[in-house]
Design brief:
This protein is of the alpha+beta class. It folds into four domains: about 30-265, Metalloenzyme, LuxS/M16 peptidase-like (Cytochrome Bc1 Complex, Chain A, domain 1), CATH 3.30.830.10; about 290-490, 2-Layer Sandwich (Cytochrome Bc1 Complex, Chain A, domain 1), CATH 3.30.830.10; about 510-725, Metalloenzyme, LuxS/M16 peptidase-like (Cytochrome Bc1 Complex, Chain A, domain 1, 2-Layer Sandwich), CATH 3.30.830.10; about 745-930, Cytochrome Bc1 Complex, Chain A, domain 1 (2-Layer Sandwich). The strands form four sheets. A seven-stranded mixed beta sheet has the order 1-2-3-7-4-6-5, sandwiched between helices. A six-stranded mixed beta sheet has the order 10-11-9-12-8-24, sandwiched between helices.
Length: about 950
């Protein structure tokens, strides 16, 4: 899931299972104002009944057509019949850049409040769940957007358009809801404060910008969040949430003409154009006149260093060249900075990024350094490398390699209409959606001389923020170019030819089954092939090798992971860099991973390139070289990741919970090692161990292959047979049984000083299989308790009503082969709210067990859950993964169809009985981690510690 706001660090720990979305509420302010206006001005009433002007077509580029309505709303329509989903995304041209003094975080806080309800949509989280949508809202520097991806039906589309049109001008921004929500936002703020590297990047950027609001983090100041007056927030909403300040995009499967008519005549066209005039932001950051520095001191386990340079706006011609230079410097393993920091073993990881911003932005470089390394030496190496950029040797090959990398990722994104729809919000915020295509074209046209020129122009110490102030007798300053006239840039732009369109594919289990071809080679490898026409001729594939057994894999957990991670680091025919270059040229995304008793490869590419990509993946799987230097780099990266968990509440809590619920012997492949044991194991392993493990275990006797998308079936079957048909596994694979373990309930509180956010985990093991009669009822019961959107019982109580947690929910699982399952709940929260959280949790669990759910809740849950299953099968990557796993389980999609029929037929009495039978509050184990000794700071005070130096705090 997406975070609610965009953070500025590259390696921030993303707790994907914790990050939900937002909101609910009610206030009649907008209604009262409208009634008064109608009474006072009969002319206005006449005007409202006047015919709505027809939309005007603005332009069409590569399948996306822009229209403008009479009230100023810009509408982008991007039909894609190959998708069985549709996405509605509305982008408002307001972000943290537009906030005034004392208003930091207001755009983001308003994003939360807009989910609190509107005149026609009183319970938005419930509606989102009921429609099986994949929704979110995000706030960034230049824009705010809201989107929903859902099964492509006219009813769903109408609902989404009605939702977005109503909350555009009729949202309730209510004081009592704000009083609860600001603590949720503060909780979100504090979760980011747990990561020192994230905070360091915020401090560096705040120091780099003296006046421009890009120096403020989007989530804002804690003090502003707590003090924002409701009148100010309402005024902010009425000013910016208007049709002339928004861009509506519909992407996926829909009727273009019919949808445009609906948008104009039924949902958006009747919203009046506001009379207020929006004042463009006009602050220009002055030229930096010397290197600046900031120092951060707080608890942590991995040292970090960062450096930021001011650069041009993303619409400027220099931006593409700077992006290419960024790749040349930091790509793995050929990047200049990568070689200086990683090959030398001085740092564990390095990275760089810049953002698609409307105004002149920044280019950020960062690195992580283990505690036992010399940070000053790393700083010296980083700065000397960056100082040498203006004169460094750059070849045409370097530029072409960087182009392939950027254009590959761009192409993959633009093969999916739902991904395009969301990505365009960034370019809309930067000035116009067509900037996306102009950026791609600029990357293509950028020359070696362009890259060398920007290297000389921008990479100067006086333009950098990193460590200490250094006076200069003759300052060498950079004047950032003005933002181009975007209207002039895009005025006559037509784009390139449309990419291939896909078929209208029915994601029902019956249709999937009717078109899927399955088979098995003599060696044992099984395959499932589902050919279909796709947008851009895209294709997804999964290859899974299953190896060893419980006895042979004893004491091999660490080496199994290292062996899988080393596969793509070089083969007998290609180096690591050659592998990357070749895959980039083939526009292929290949991910290799694994551990324990399985190894997997996921592939995303195109029809023409699939045969070559499969040959490369075969080479990776069958001919790895296990280079000693690459092995040491991997070790350093792993050590840094493990070290970062030693004081992190999330890492410590998850580790302790898993160890408690899965108490296997230390020699067992399923054993969960402590953080210290992980460090010891990673330090002790040798490259020879990985070579031996590969030789002893790897083969395709128990492998499965699935392919979904546009491909030639005969060619793929031949490759599978030739490449894997005779690759025997040295040790036969034998499934490791999932064993139910009845764990006595315990409570464990882990103290993590100086961490603003805490994590709560609670659950129990279940003697449960997904074929059991009670399983459908438990699935829906968990969905209503905490597995759906924020209309779940836990979310309504803990987040919506009491504002304790930003992310709260529950998970339930049952093994497909054994009587072994689990139930788990989670929440992130301020440590001082621990008692309040646990009380609410136990009350809600007990209420579900004793009183159960209502028939109305069940009806809504069924509709939302079933639609979400259809959405899942519409995603080719998820469908390929499902087919691959079902080969191993000896299942077909008929299992899904049968299971969904059981869900449709289940009664509320059966659901309640299943929950009462399996969920026992007295058997629940709790693990929590946080700074539970921390005192609550009064509003307006500052806790001890934090930042020293010249940075804004």
């Amino acid at each position: 899931m997406l975070n609610c706001y965009r953070t500025l660090t590259f390696r921030q720990l993303v707790i994907t299972m914790l990050v939900g979305i937002f909101f609910l509420g009610g206030d009649a302010f907008a209604q009262k104002k409208e009634r008064k206006r109608k009474k006072k001005n009969k002319t206005a009433l006449v005007e409202e009944k006047a015919p709505i002007p027809a939309p005007l077509k603005v332009t069409s580029v590569e399948g996306i057509t822009e229209y403008v309505l009479g009230n100023g709303l810009r509408v982008l329509l991007f039909p894609d019949p190959s998708k069985q989903t549709a996405t509605v995304n509305i982008t408002y041209l307001v972000g943290s850049r537009h906030e005034g003094y004392g208003e930091t975080g207001m755009a983001h806080l308003l994003e939360h409040m807009v989910f609190k309800g509107s005149t026609k949509h009183l319970d938005i989280p419930k509606e989102l769940s009921d429609h099986g949508a994949r929704p979110n809202g995000t706030t960034w520097l230049d824009r705010t957007n809201y989107f929903e991806t859902f099964a492509a039906t006219e009813e769903n589309l109408r609902w989404a358009l009605d939702l977005e049109s109503d909350r555009m001008v009729n949202s309730f921004i209510k004081k009592e809801e704000l009083d609860k929500e600001f603590s949720v936002v503060r909780n979100e703020f504090e979760s980011g404060e747990n990561n020192p590297e994230s905070v360091l990047s915020e401090r560096i950027i705040a120091t780099a910008y003296l006046w421009h609001n890009y120096g403020n983090s989007t989530i804002g100041s804690r003090e502003d969040i707590e003090r924002v007056p409701i009148d100010n927030l309402q005024a902010f909403y009425r000013k910016y949430y208007q049709p002339d300040n928004a861009v509506l995009l519909v992407a996926g499967k829909f009727d273009e003409a019919k949808t445009l008519k609906m948008i104009n005549e039924e949902y958006f066209g009747g919203i009046p154009r506001p009379t207020r005039k929006l004042q463009p932001t006009y602050t220009v950051e002055p030229t930096q006149d010397g290197e600046r520095s900031v120092t951060l001191r707080r608890v942590g386990d991995v040292q970090s260093i960062g450096a930021a340079y001011h650069i041009c706006a993303s619409s400027h011609p220099d931006y593409a060249a700077l992006d290419l230079l960024q790749v040349i410097l930091t790509s793995e393993p050929a990047g200049t900075l990568y070689k200086a920091l990683i090959d030398s073993k001085k740092a564990s990881y390095q990275y760089a990024y810049s953002f698609t911003n409307k105004d002149p932005t920044f280019l950020y470089f960062g690195a992580g350094v283990l505690k036992d390394k010399d940070l000053e030496d790393v700083k010296k190496t980083m700065l000397s490398t960056l100082d040498a950029v203006p004169t460094m040797e750059i070849s045409k090959e370097d530029v072409e390699r960087a182009k392939n990398d950027i254009l590959k990722n761009f192409g993959i994104t633009f093969q999916s209409s739902d991904r395009i729809g969301l990505q365009l919000s960034e370019y809309i915020g930067a000035g116009d959606w067509r900037l996306a295509f102009l950026y791609r074209d600029a990357v293509t046209k950028t020359t070696l001389d362009d890259v060398k020129r920007v290297a000389k122009f921008y990479f100067k110490p006086s333009n950098r923020t990193i460590g200490v102030f250094i006076p200069e007798e003759k300052p060498d300053r950079v004047i950032i170019p003005a933002t181009p006239d975007v209207d002039a840039l895009v005025k006559d732009y037509k784009g390139k030819a449309l990419i291939a369109q896909g078929e209208a594919f029915d994601p029902s289990p019956a249709n999937i089954e009717s078109r899927t071809k399955r088979g098995q080679e003599a060696s044992g490898i099984e395959f499932a092939l589902l050919p279909k026409s796709t947008r851009g001729n895209s294709v997804r594939a999964n290859i899974t090798l299953r190896i060893g057994d419980e006895q042979s894999l004893q004491n091999k957990s660490t080496v199994a992971g290292y062996t899988a991670s080393m596969l793509n680091k070089g083969t007998k025919t290609m180096s690591r860099q050659q592998l990357k270059d070749t895959l980039d040229k083939l526009k292929a995304q290949v991910n290799i991973g694994g551990g324990g008793n399985s190894v997997s490869a996921s592939i995303e590419t195109t029809k023409d390139n699939l045969p070559k990509v499969l040959e490369i993946v075969t080479d990776i799987l069958k001919n790895p070289t296990f280079d000693a230097e690459e092995f040491e780099k991997l070790r350093q990266e792993n050590l840094a990741g493990i070290e970062s968990q030693k004081s992190d509440p999330q890492g410590l809590a998850f580790n302790a919970f898993q160890r408690t619920m899965n108490p296997y012997p230390k020699s067992d492949i399923r054993y969960v090692a402590t953080i210290d044991e992980q460090l010891e194991n990673n330090k002790a392993i040798k490259v020879e161990d990985a070579k031996k493990f590969y030789k002893d275990f790897y083969g395709a006797s128990a492998a499965t292959v699935s392919v979904v998308g546009d491909f030639d079936e005969a060619t793929v079957r031949k490759i599978i047979s030739n490449n894997f048909g005779s690759w025997k596994s040295p040790i036969p694979f034998k499934r490791i049984q999932a064993v139910f373990q009845d764990i006595a309930p315990t409570a464990n509180a882990i103290k993590t000083p100086d961490k603003a956010n805490a994590l709560f985990l609670a659950g129990q093991n279940l003697q449960l299989q997904d074929t059991d009669p009670d399983y459908p009822g438990l699935v829906l019961g968990n969905y209503m308790l905490g597995g759906g959107f924020l209309s779940s019982r836990l979310a309504v109580r803990i987040r919506q009503k009491e504002g304790i947690s930003y992310g709260v929910g529950s998970n339930l699982s049952g093994s497909p082969m054994d009587k072994s399952g689990s139930f788990m709940t989670y929440a992130i929260y301020a440590p001082e709210n621990a008692e309040k959280l646990e009380k609410a949790f136990y009350e809600e669990i007990t209420k579900v067990v004793n009183e159960g759910f209502t028939a109305e809740e069940l009806k809504a849950a069924k509709a939302g859950w079933l639609q979400s299953r259809s959405v899942s099968r519409s995603q080719d990557n998820e469908l390929s993964g499902r087919l691959n796993n079902y080969l191993y389980l000896d299942r077909t999609l008929q299992f899904d169809a049968d299971f969904e029929k059981k869900v449709e037929a289940i009664t509320v009495e059966q659901v309640n009985a299943a929950m009462k039978k399996f969920i026992d509050p007295k058997k629940i184990t709790i693990v929590k981690a946080g700074d539970f000794d921390k005192k609550v700071a009064a509003p307006g005070t500052t806790a001890p510690g934090g930042v020293s130096g010249s940075g804004k705090n």
